[in-house]
Amino acid sequence: xxSLESQLFEGVFLEAIIKRRRSSRNHLGLENDKEDEDGRxxxxxxxxxxxxAPPEPVSRSSQRPAVSTExxxxxHLNTASEVHQVSVGHKVSTQRVAVAYxxxxxxxxxxxxxxxxxxxxxxxxxxxxxxxxxxxxxxTSNLIPLAHNNVPVEGCSINLSLVGPGTEATTGTxxxxxxxxxxxxxxxxxxxxxxxxxxxxxxxxGVEMEAMCGVVGAALTVVDMCKAVDxxxxxxxxxxxxxxxxxxxxWGIFAKTEEEK
Length: 261
Hints:
Elements: H1 3-28, H2 60-63, E1 94-105, H3 111-116, H4 125-138, H5 140-143, E2 153-163, H6 177-181, E3 192-203, H7 208-226, E4 234-244, E5 251-252
Antiparallel strand pairs: 1-3, 1-4, 2-3, 4-5
């Protein structure tokens, strides 16, 4: 074999080896800048089209929802939507009054008379419930996590009214404060107890929560003392029906009418 023939043979042999290697790389998806039939480029390390590759890992902090820069309407949430206790240090002390209401519904028609006759073994239901309501008012911050402690409650009155069986009025709506104020209005077919708590304070924060805690404290005491003779007793319609003082002004039963304004 001449030298020329030898060179030609080596060239053909090397070209065959290169083609085989390229064919193997294409089969494994390792060739750079290859395109599929839709014109999408392949990654050099994967056989998956580059535009179909999985997204980069996302950190937990980046997964949190974006928080609006606008002022949140819920004062107990800061700009990061985290719970905190509202600061009242900058507020001016004003006279504040709050009135809350609730009722205890009986399912035993005899319970009203039993309470009136002081026939329960645990004693005077109304007297104990009244004291329990006052105690609940003074321990509000221990029950409500974000309530301010040491609120100077300067006065607290508990109005309890036993109501005999009767048909409840169907006129009006639960939002009508005037109807809620009628403490002698009948409660269902077995009667019940209506509770109204009024709290007064001179300070930088309202006493609505104190008034409602007073209602619930008195109501729970009634349930505890009467459950032996009425296991179906319930607590209902606990709400604030009026407030006075503070930045938001008077509301509910203290709101001024158009004529008074």
